[in-house]
Amino acid sequence: MGELARLDRIGAVGALSAALAHEINQPLGAILSYAETAELLLDSPRPSHHELRALIAAIREDNLRAAAVLVRLRAWIANNAGQPQRLALNPLLHEVARILRVEVHMRDTELRLQLCDTVPEVVADGVQIQQVTLNLVLNALDALQQMAPEQRRVTIRSARNAAGGADVCVSDCGPGLSGIVAERLFEPFFSTKPDGLGVGLSISRSILERHGGTLEVEQPACGGALFRFSLPSAAAPSP
Fold first, then answer.
1. Is the pLDDT reported for residue 16 higher than 60?
2. What kind of fold does domain 85-231 have according to CATH?
3. CA 87, CA 75: separation in Å to the nearest integer?
């Protein structure tokens, strides 16, 4: 199951390849522009040391930004699982939105965050919970491709649930489940996509169950689909 989860992460990287390339090319392009500007300054009779220092600082900052993308990518596909630790979900959800920023823009979609300040901390492997959330959002983005651009919206919500644990919901305004029995979506190798492997949701549910949590799907009356995963509070006894 651990190896399948890693393969699923690699598949997600493939789906995000264009966005990742754009995210790396952006700072590299800025570095080139800063270097060319510095060369022009050096050709002037009295180059400004202050401006040169500012350009060098900008080059360093963009270099670190590009390197950080690669570090996160290596951590994402690493074979060894991280250790569960006390985790605040809202910063993790902000990071998911940041990772998907370019992908969302390329798909002409709006991604909304509605995060509750009182959502409790959980004990979890952050990379795996990030993987679950990315999986759900990427599925929602896929479901919206047949919709008009102005109707493409995905919402990530966090909240404290009635049991005192944490809920994270990923909802879309797409066509919904189209008569599919909801529970079938979590069967291994069942997929509604022509090129889908059908392992993402199955792995996501397994990850959450190992954390003492759940993953369910709902069909809101207003249309679309809503996937909700729940995790026990860090203050709750271990399952």
1. yes
2. Heat Shock Protein 90 (3.30.565)
3. 17
Q: Which of 210, 185, 74 is nearest to 135 (CA)?
A: 185
The amino acid at residue 66 is: A
Structural domain spans, the chain: 2-77, 85-231
pLDDT digits (tens, 9 = 90+) for 25-60: 778 888 888 898 889 889 888 888 888 998 899 899
**Cα dihedral 89, 91, 92, 96 sign:** positive
Q: Where are the beta strands (DSSP E) in 136-225?
A: 153-160, 166-172, 214-218
**Is this model's pTM higher than 0.70 or not?**
no
Q: Residue 152: phi, psi to the nearest 5?
A: -85, 105
| DSSP for residue 216 | E
Element holding 176 (H helix, E strand): none
